## 1
Amino acid sequence: MTGTKTEWEDARVFGVNKEQPHCTLMPFDSIDAALRKTEHGEHEANYLSPYYKTLNGTWKFNWVKKPAERPVDFFKPGFDVSKWKEIPVPLNWEMAGYGIPIYTNATYPYSLKLDNPPSIDPEDNPVGSYRTTFIIPDFWLDDGRQVFLHFDGVQSAFYAWINGNLVGFSKDSMTPADFNITPYIKAGTNMIAVEVYRWSDGSYLEDQDFWRTSGIYREVYLFCTPAVHVRDFFIRTTFDKKYEDATIKLDVNVMNYSEAARKKIALQVLIFDADLKQVNKTLAIDLDIAAREEVIPDFTEPVKKPRHWNAEAPYLYHVVIVLRNEDGEILEVVGTKFGFRQLEVKDGIYLINGKRLYMKGVDRHEFDPDKCRGVSFSWMRKDMEIIKQLNINTVRTCHYPNHPCWYELCDEHGIYIIDEANVESHGLRHSLPASDPQWTDQCVLRMEAMVHRDKNHPCVVLWSLGNEAGFGSNFVEMYKATKAIDTTRLVHYEGDYEMEVADVQSTMYSPWEKLEQLARHEDIGTLKAERYKDKPIMMCEYSHSMGNAQGSFLRFIEIFHKYPQIIGGCIWDFVDQGLRKKDEN
């Protein structure tokens, strides 16, 4: 990897030196601190951890119209950037006056060569070069601790350097990228450089109906872990036949980054209610972990009569996971909120905790009129207030994974989420990605990154393989990869017209006559009733409402109420996407 177009114009490359995807987590140094963190929200309270350092702020910035004009050696510590301009991070660079935002629906931007994907026009691919410095605490360098560089979202592909050393490359604008930078950091001042390409081969899979913008638009931060670290965990809950008593199942991925085996590492699990009262006996197991190896112990714990999580009563518990050394000293504490809820299908009806799951939903782009893709937490709260005022109970994340904070708000306020992978090739959907093997890994890895990140959120009730991207064997592989991680949720994909893999019969913009035909299990064209009669039915997009639109809405609602096999639907869309612009007045 040399920082050339080899990676950003190669559909087979999803990333280089990226860490494996994992759930949203942050290490803490005590149980109390981890509980305060889960009380305040996963992302919002990261600052409470001594193992967290934000890199948000003002960075030095250079922008050029094409890769050939970029400052090739800017990542070297001796390169002078004193005369460069500055830019806030996070922010799409178009919002700071560099280039222009482009709005298209299915039409690809001119830089993408539709007759020769994954090629990008070398004369029209702006590159942003970012630099800043940081100082880390001295204790981050002790006892084999590991330091990771985390990007929540960068459009559309980027390289990162620490102190002149290339640490990695990533694409997929909507899921995180982590890099282990332990070998490259030092005491005192460190320098980070990031080179972002507006367009990449990944842009062919990001042809959503929205504003096309670029740059580091979500948070950037460092986090530090002990040599033995809880890298990931997965919580599932089930109920007994009466939906009274429950069982919690927890898998914990514990990684030993050191070159020596570690013995008698104590792993403990504690569960607390919303009042921070512990509701279980502390679960514990001792681990022996070989050098550079990962173990995945699992726990199963009965819980008497827990409160349910659903849209009407979104009660949240806390799980705290503790690692201790053989002397009983805390190495690390991680935690998250979770809800007791069970999803299942009976007689074609999608149930949550034994009751029909009925979606009164909207399709929502993640959008701020002043910051475009870089949506602040306060703006998310405004959106949530409107959603609750309108009695909406479902949001489809159109058409990509949203900011992690959005899922926390949905957990808290009782909003069901259809979590959609960042895969849309609207303008080329009949040929890309289809069954083309050069796109298989990238499609699968985009799906896996989303599922791993969001798997612990009770609000997520459906996974979606993407939107308006055609169909082919690549979607079959995405489905298989999803089920290999999580069997508790159904998988949605409207583009699977023949119901080859999808768990839900999904349709968009169908007239109510067709919706009723589906509910009566009729053959419709080449779609045979045998393929979907035992599966829930939904309108993933309907009642198009951009601008002064919509109409004849009542008939859909009457059909939703008449046929419980219909989950409901999502109106297109939540709010219009208008960028605020000052004119001469």
## 2
Amino acid sequence: MLEKTYLYLSTPEVSGKEIGLFRTLAAIFGGLFVAYLGMTLLAFIIPMEIKQSGIISIMFNTSAWACSATWIALSYTKFEALLKSTVPSIVFAISLYFLY
């Protein structure tokens, strides 16, 4: 079962012209999680008051979301899109856990 799922996710789509529903949803929600967690981590790392760094993070969040969603949507396979949306989210979440 796991091998069948892996083969399904790692097989490229027949037509490269269509993005597909899976990659679209992975790009939207994965990009959202990556952008929010990344901007929250940026707010903690910047050596300013949390109010000022929070405003900077909110201003750049839209751009970060668009860039990460495009990066995820341009994946060659569904498995690659899944990895591009989960691995950075997990890394940012663990970093926030240790910094907070």
## 3
Amino acid sequence: MTELNELFDKEVECPICSNKFTTKKIRASRLRILKRDKDFLNYYNNENPIKYSIFVCPNCGYAASENKFNDIRKDQIGIIIDNIASRWKKRDFGGVRNLDEAIETYKLSLITATLLKFTSLEQGNICLNIGWLYRLKEDKEGEKRFLELAREQFIEAYNKESLSSTNMDDGKLSYLIGELSRRIDDKEEALSWFNTCLSLSSTRMNPSLNEMAREQWRIVKEI
């Protein structure tokens, strides 16, 4: 159950339609990480903040993460109006969200990301978060489907995109691709990507990542 004092209302103005609305966020001061999965999903003592990471305008349907919500050019506004707002049936995600509602907000943000041609890394992160939410819901089929989509986008990012201005480097990304491959039962790809990760200088400079990659490589080898 969500304790209401864990949450607070954030006031937001939509950059598409100028509608002002409120959306819930988690008080960071109340969060404590209890454990972390090997693909970096954190578990907390209270609500998981990923449930509230996406802002959705109830008036026009524009959806994006907090750090991307206002990062939109004037020439992109028409794309959202034509493809989302014109078809939107008003819904409000500003209250307490269950897992299904959180998943829906991320799927709406994935539509935005696709229309506005976000990077493969950004689209992969959205898919990864959807996969995590399905895991929290204990829906293995949904989780696997979106981990596969995340892996596809991350491979595209690894091969074609610069990571220099992101919080990701080639070591961490190759490790994540390997771990997602392991989780979707693609042993051959998992071993290949863990080997790639272990060969990189960025991994050798990161002892914890190096140990994680070796540990997961051993787990796959023993299957």
